[in-house]
Amino acid sequence: MIYHPMAGLALLLLTSAATAQAQTDYAADAASIEKLVNNNYAYLERFPSQRMPMTAQLRGEAMKVSSEAELIRYAERALTLLADHHAITGSSLKDSWGVFPSYGDLWVEPSGGKYVITAIRDSSPAATAGIREGDVLVAVDGQPASAAVAAFWSDLGANGGGERDGYAARVLAAGRRDRPRHLTIGRGTATPLEMELPNLYSNWRPDHPAVTVTNDGAAIRIKFNDSLGDSETIAAFDGAMGQANRGRSLIIDLTDTASGGNTSVARAILGWFVRHPSFYQIHNLPSEERETGIARQWVEQVLPRQGKYWGGPVTVRVGRWTGSMGEGIAIGFAAIGKRVEGSRMAGLLGAIYDYRLEKSGQIIKFPSERLSAVDGTPREKFVPRLAPPPR
Q1: In this predicted model, what pLDDT tens digit does every residue of 42-56 receive, in sequence order?
Q2: What does 235-293 look like in DSSP terms, one character per residue?
Q3: What CATH number corresponds to the domain at position 158?
């Protein structure tokens, strides 16, 4: 038998990997999530106990977590207890629930014992299927919507009720990432229709540029295509602004920014519309007050950009798929006196921070800063004063 030195190396690497896997304390990481949330989540007042609404069932599950996949699943389940669309995991599984609103197309709210669809994402599978505002989500996978929502919470050993049920209904309507959705939709007195819709992870729309520019003769519209997290969007927006004619109105369309973005892109956009440093949002860090007893709050400014200024009329359009940084840009425009029109936005809470679990390195994300408009209105409660334009 001939010994090959690489075979020994391969065996050593496999043994080392197996040992590392065995030594990783996944259960400890799972158990640590509750403390991380209680120390850092910015909106604990949402819960009667002022603490994460952890359940005995989930605490029991944490003790049994023994692999990376089980930890990811557990983290998803634990964060679901927050009923916060802005609380997510850094990694996911092929059958994880779709992240909402980034990968959802139906805004569902409980009303009068029904689950009413109050908004549909433009050009989405739901819109293509003909679902309309005012329709009702009757069933999910053949199960009555109310029963499906109740099961969603009971599976976690938790209770729903109120807006928590709206959260659950929106997640159920977004579906699992690895399969189509089977939804029953009702309209008035007509027989409800059973529909099969692809989920929004299935390449539901082709590649698109960071911004789209249209010109109807009276106004130039710059539409962001869910691109506020891409630094290349800055150059794309600057190029689009180069096409703006001061004899026409300018429309900034934020209605498809569900995945949020970063503040560098936001400040680059807003910088076109100010002559001097201007406040655009308030930050508050509750975790520092919890730790030290001393509150911390600051106001962020947007600065003018050299050689880039638009002094003509501008209108900003928002809607339910204006999320996170899109919402920040909207309140920034409002702060500098620009016209903001549309419906309620996504209402995503605060700014999310990443937390790396100590043993495994897995990431969880949840809101750790509270964000407000400069007049003190919480960002998630901001409502445009002007109705959306007619379709």
Answers
A1: 999 999 999 999 999
A2: HHHHHHHTT--TTSEEEEE-TTBTT---HHHHHHHHGGG-SS-EEEEEEE-HHHHHHHS
A3: 2.30.42.10
Residue span of the structural domain in which 70 resides:
24-89
CA distance 303 to 18: 52
- Residues 130, 123: Cα–Cα separation, whole Å: 10
Whether the CA torsion 162, 168, 174, 175 is positive or negative: it is negative
Shared domain for 178 and 315, answered yes or no, is no
pLDDT digits (tens, 9 = 90+) for 128-170: 999 999 999 999 999 999 999 999 999 999 999 999 999 999 9
DSSP state of 72: H
Q: Are residues 217 and 365 in the same domain?
A: yes
Conformation bin of residue 203: beta by default, left when phi > 0, alpha when psi is -120 to 50: left
This prediction has a pTM of 0.89
Residues 6+ apart with CB under 8 A from 362: 29, 68, 71, 72, 75, 89, 90, 91, 356
- Asked whether residue 294 falls in the same domain as residue 333, the answer is yes
User: How many structural domains comprise the chain?
Assistant: 3
CA angle 259, 262, 264 (to 5 degrees): 150
Distance separating the N- and C-terminal Cα atoms of the chain: 78
> Same domain, yes or no, for 111 and 56?
no
Answer whether 170's CB lies under 8 Å from 85's CB.
yes
